[in-house]
């Protein structure tokens, strides 16, 4: 792997051999103490940075590939959904909290979502939502039934889980009762985006606007009632998720693959007031990476050409790091002046950056949480 000027460490230090490597498509989870959690080669690994190197604190063997990210619960435990259909829950010391629960095969774009009481919600392979209680006990019946799959990483807003579906609708599923119910009136076109929604929603700082990217090449804004507020056409597929800067501007990656032409990509900035495109930045390749925004306004993202970019709020280039492998993961700021992305060669790379942390407002990363 190339080691650009910004390089600090990689985990594992050398990429796995080619026939064992799995693309690292997910950003690591980071807890309040700065411990880094990632899934690699059939293991959940806890890391800390010491002396500009990554030290392994513990490893938990999950016994199979984990296509989605490690997800933190409110009590500090970590959930992972493995390809064999099991949901694992591990405490911050690396010990199993409860036996793995069979919840079915994971979907390609979805990830577990944990509420404030420790309940875990899974987008079911055959549609709808499953719920596993904080003690590891699954519901006997689906928590919410639907005919379409929710192949999207949902987010919790108030008492509702916002999640995209394959029929082009956003669902707002109430979480307070034994069974979920959709709070948005789909019969009146509330939450309708018009194309598959695989992206994770982003929510404005005041909670008054929910932004999603749809496969019909439009970015949409919805009111908390589900009413469509605006839409912005974007030339290309948005294969990642939007983020929102503190001042309200939106950033999203775009991939284009015209027939007979070389695939290309851009980072697009949309004005938070007019919802028109402010600027576009041409990357080295398609952009499937969800950006992360630093507290100094810098926007970091990767591309499939093997570059990680740092841009200012006007689209100006601060630096570019070539890492040789495609970068399709979301970005993560691990600690002050430390940025991380997963690479398609199976490694997590940490780079030095000027940001002291995440942007303090807006929706600065995938999932929007400050940790």
Strand content: 35-45%
**What level of helicity do the residues show?**
under 10%
The best one-word shape is globular
Number of helices: 0
Report the C-alpha radius of gyration, rounded. 19 Å
Distance between the termini: 28 Å
- Number of E-type strands: 30
Order of strands across the biggest sheet? 1-30-29-28
What's the mean pLDDT score? 95
Could you list the spans in which at least 5 consecutive residues all have pLDDT below 50? none
Helix-strand pattern, N to C?
EEEEEEEEEEEEEEEEEEEEEEEEEEEEEE
Helix and strand content put the structural class at: mainly beta
Description:
This protein is mainly beta and 371 residues long. It is built from no helices and 30 strands. The two termini are 28 Å apart.
Topology, element by element:
Elements lengths: L6 E5 L17 E2 L5 E5 L2 E8 L2 E9 L9 E2 L5 E4 L4 E5 L5 E7 L10 E2 L5 E4 L5 E4 L22 E3 L2 E5 L5 E5 L27 E2 L6 E5 L3 E5 L5 E6 L9 E2 L5 E7 L7 E7 L6 E6 L9 E2 L5 E4 L4 E5 L5 E6 L9 E4 L2 E5 L5 E5 L19
Antiparallel strand pairs: 1-30, 2-3, 3-4, 4-5, 6-7, 7-8, 8-9, 10-11, 11-12, 13-14, 14-15, 16-17, 17-18, 18-19, 20-21, 21-22, 22-23, 24-25, 25-26, 26-27, 28-29, 29-30
């Amino acid at each position: 792997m190339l080691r650009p000027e910004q390089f600090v460490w990689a985990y594992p230090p050398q990429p796995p051999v080619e026939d064992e490597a799995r693309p690292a498509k997910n950003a690591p989870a980071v807890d309040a103490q700065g411990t880094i959690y990632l899934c690699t080669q059939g293991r959940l690994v806890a890391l800390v940075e010491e002396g500009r190197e990554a030290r392994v604190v513990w490893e938990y063997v999950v016994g199979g590939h984990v296509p989605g990210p490690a997800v933190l619960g409110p009590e500090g435990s970590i959930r992972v959904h493995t390809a064999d259909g099991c949901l694992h829950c591990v405490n911050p010391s690396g010990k199993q909290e409860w036996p793995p629960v069979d919840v079915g095969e994971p979907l390609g774009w979805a990830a577990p979502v944990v509420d404030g009481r420790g309940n875990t919600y899974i987008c079911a392979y055959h549609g709808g939502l499953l719920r596993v209680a904080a003690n590891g006990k699954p519901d006997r019946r689906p928590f919410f039934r639907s005919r379409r799959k929710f192949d999207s990483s949902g987010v919790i807003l108030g008492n509702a889980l916002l999640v995209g579906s394959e029929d082009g609708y956003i669902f707002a599923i109430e979480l307070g009762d034994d069974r979920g119910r959709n709070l948005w009136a789909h019969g009146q076109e509330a939450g309708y985006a018009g194309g598959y929604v695989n992206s994770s929603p982003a929510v404005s700082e005041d909670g008054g606007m929910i932004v999603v990217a749809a496969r019909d090449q439009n970015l949409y804004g919805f009111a908390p009632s589900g009413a469509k507020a605006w839409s912005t056409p974007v030339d290309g597929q948005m294969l990642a998720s939007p983020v929102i800067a503190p001042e309200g501007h939106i950033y999203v990656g775009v991939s284009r693959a015209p027939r007979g032409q070389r695939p290309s990509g851009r980072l697009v900035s949309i004005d938070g007031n007019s919802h028109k495109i402010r600027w576009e930045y041409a990357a080295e390749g398609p952009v499937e990476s969800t950006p992360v925004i630093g507290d100094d306004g810098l926007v970091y993202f990767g591309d499939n050409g093997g570059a990680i970019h740092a841009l200012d709020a006007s689209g100006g280039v601060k630096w570019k790091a070539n890492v040789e492998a495609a970068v399709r993961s979301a970005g993560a700021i691990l600690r002050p002046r430390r940025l991380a992305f997963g690479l398609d060669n199976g490694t997590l790379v940490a780079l030095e950056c000027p940001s002291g942390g995440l942007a303090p407002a807006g929706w600065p990363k995938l999932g929007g949480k400050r940790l």
